[in-house]
Amino acid sequence: MDSITLIAMASIVTAGLTIALGSIGPALGEGRAVATALSSLAQQPDSATTITRTLFVGLAMIESIAIYCFVVSMILIFANPFWNHVIAQAAGK
Amino acid sequence: MRLSPDEMIFWQYGLFKLNGTIVFTWALMFVLAVGSKLITRKLSTGLERSRWQSLLEIVVTGIVKQIEDVGLRHPEKYIGFLGTLFLFVALASLCTIIPGYEPPTGSLSTTAALALCVLVAVPFFGIEEQGIGGYLKSYVEPTVIMLPFNIISELSRTLALAVRLFGNMMSGTMILAILLTITPFIFPIAMSVLGLLTGMVQAYIFSILAAVYIASATRVRKTLKYEPRPRGNTNG
Lengths: 93, 236
Hints:
Chain A is mostly helical.
């Protein structure tokens, strides 16, 4: 296999693994956060606005972990620096 | 496939490029500035007022209330910065309903610039509130050992702000583009509605996080000196 095929294969497989493994943790975390917020909403409906605001901010913080993984996998697929380097070298020959 | 509106080039002359990010950013700035200028040109204090003035009043009082809730005591001092951040990011994602438009916040350069503004604004407001010595002292709280970690956290949260906004906006347009090739008719509409919601939440998150950072930089000393017990509301 030449290096182009190797890089393409490694990038695609790693992109899939990145988003797959990287979304497990945030999914568990968001589930826990929402469940806890729901039970505290049921206990204290008066402080609904505070709980909801904190929940949203926290959810976005948790979700940003998954977003980082998504950005890395998108970079691997669409803007891969190693791929661009090898392609530029092959074009230069 | 385009990863960001940076690669959408409208006009080029030598090294000077006019890409989608610049054009859409200036269009948004134009709409925001001219719109608020037009609305505030004839304000009325009576009961009779235009609907645009009511809209602007709702927006401004809402932002002031949110800033107050975070714990900043003089919101009118910070609304110029935080409110602009919120309005810009919110309008950038709201305008995605216009065909041919791509949000400039879907480019890493825009979000990095916004995050750098926050990075500069936090020490600015902090020094203004408690002086240079007081602000610098907050870096060695609770002990001197925490100094490198405090500096690292300052930088890493800036990176997190930039990449979070960029990732959310970019993923919205990317998912739309991918879905258009698979299921062209109904499903992309549902996803773009979801994208509008995500954009609003992200605008809120961005400005609230900036407010939280500013609040933490401006009141370190006060909480250390004396913290009165909150009266009433003991069940909260």
